[in-house]
Amino acid sequence: MLPADLSALKIEDHSRHSGGGSWIRWFAVIVGVLVIGSGIFFALQKKVTPVEVVSAHATSPGQAQAATLLNASGYVTPRRRATVAAKITARVEQMYAEEGMHVKAGQVLAILDQSDYRVRLNSAIADRDSTQATLSDLQVNLKNAEVELHRNEELQKSGVTTQQALDNARTTVNSYKARIAATQQAIAAAESKIRISQQDLDNCTVVSPYDGIIVSKDAQRGEMVSPISAGGGFTRTGLATVVDMNSNEVEVDVNESYIGRVYEHQPVTSTLDAYPDWQIPSHVRTIIPTADRQKATVKVRISFDKLDPRILPDMGVKVAFLEEQKPQDKKQPEHAIYLPKDAVRQSDGSTIVYLVHDGKAERRAVRTGGTNGDNQEIIAGLNDGEQVIVRGPADLHDGQSVAIKQ
Question: Under a CB-based contact definition with an 8 Å cutoff, are residues 252 and 286 in contact?
Fold first, then answer.
């Protein structure tokens, strides 16, 4: 048997030190990692970046069937809005009111300089005390004069004293009584001055007239305030403006040619310019019984059926005066609501819609009924007022981040 030739297993030195193929393999690995990483990055970016959608709120059949008789625009106006001012002219010593602060009726908004009024109060109290001291002295002298008068009357009966002495004693008693009465009147006058001075001192504390929110801070510590304009414009006439948010309502001007279509308690839909997709149920509170001859309009005040913190004074608002709602059809399910047709989709043989919940799309299976114009009846699966996506990407999926397009 021939011996094995092991020389064939020998690795030549030039092959052992050759690295030409290694760096190519490493380069290919790095490029592959970068490509995969970029794909994952862009996939995550696509998943995280919200897609813009157009939404609408589900409405009840009554709202869907109500016809609009008239449209108008106006502003949110509070019925109770007060610029709180001081009753006296003084310098602001402390200012507690700040914009956005919630205040209660009687809460202190500012304190004015009290030094002058406190001095006047102390002076009035001193005058009263001095007069009371005089009254005490007169009362003591009156008692003594009455004793003298009684003694002279007894002596007169005995014939010991003269009639003149008796008359003098009686005159002294009457004089003290008159002086006491005058002093009591002086004390009453001093008490009135004390009350006036105390009222002036109390006026240095400015309080809120009712519960509300501070929307404007009109004075600062150290400034002079006065109930009347004075000082060439350097004196403030108001301290702060308080608004009762519970009194917010809408004021619109209606052309007098169409005022006949408006009546009290008429249903109205209000839409704030800041929230164009939010229809707020409202009603006509009153029609101001006078017209503006310059604009040929009549003012109408509209109350919200339910207030919301998003409704702020002076916001622009558009209103739609609705006709009296017709009685609901008995054949129609009571829980049926309406959506724009574009909001309803078909997926895997099911009818679905996408809702907006916490900034994400939420898939919801629904059951549809008939149609009403551009609206689709939903008889199961939705609640009145839920925010539904009307227009969005075709590949929209459950849980995808969305942003409402304004």
Answer: no
